[in-house]
């Protein structure tokens, strides 16, 4: 979808190049050299240098004056703040998430659907396990996450076919389900019970439940997640203990927002 948009006459290539440079910093590592930005972006040195200079001037990139290496600037966080501040869905779900966190004592997360992924936008964390997994903005696949399967359970046949034609189905752990037929069977089960369940499939030693957050017309907007430590529970025990709380939280959201179907 995004690649199709790039061929539209309205697409501004120079603006796209700005984001190509910013996206270089997804590759990992706190700082990148000019050479590394050139390698990641496939731009020539002069082009990469001009874009880095401009982004530094705007505060979205910062340069270490000692090493001359670059990192993302704090201005990036301003966009995150304003996105969360102005998002009515996140605002309406936050008190429900707080109640769910207090009631269960587990990690509670809200994610929003973006193409073939969920992006985590709000967390209520009860421990410091899995630091990177707890960060806002983390992008996760649909097929092997509890919330992702909950979202997929609301796809129609065309949406499912489109997803399977573009999704990257790969093992994230030794327990990840990668067979399309088994994934589809699990999604049918998710639709029937109202929540997805994964056990060690995306993050080792994590058990998670996820229920879809729907718009008033029944479209999946994202998912609400409850997750804990897999070594402390079996999947069935975790679902029996916490699924009722998760489903009740979804009902509260639907009732407060007039979207109950």
Radius of gyration: 20 Å
Major pleated sheet: 6 strands, antiparallel
Give the oligomeric state. Answer: single chain
Helix-strand makeup class: alpha+beta
CATH level-4 homologous superfamily of the largest domain: GAF domain
**What overall form do the CA principal axes indicate?**
globular
CATH topology of the largest domain: Beta-Lactamase
Helix content class: 40-55%
Write out the strand line-up for the largest beta sheet, numbering strands in chain order.
5-4-3-8-7-6
Tell me the fraction of residues in β-strands, as a range. Answer: 15-25%
Structural domains: how many = 2
- Termini distance? 29 Å
Low-pLDDT segments: none
Number of helices: 10
- CATH architecture classification name of the largest domain: 2-Layer Sandwich
What is the number of strand segments? Answer: 8
SSE arrangement, N to C: HHHHEEHHEEEHHHEEEH
Q: Provide the CATH top-level class of the largest domain.
A: Alpha Beta
- Summed over residues and divided by their number, the pLDDT gives a mean of 91
Secondary-structure topology with pairs:
Elements: H1 2-5, H2 13-23, H3 34-41, H4 45-58, E1 61-63, E2 70-72, H5 75-86, H6 88-104, E3 107-114, E4 117-124, E5 139-141, H7 146-152, H8 157-166, H9 180-193, E6 196-199, E7 206-214, E8 220-229, H10 235-257
Antiparallel strand pairs: 1-2, 3-4, 3-8, 4-5, 6-7, 7-8
Helix pairs in contact: 3-4, 6-10
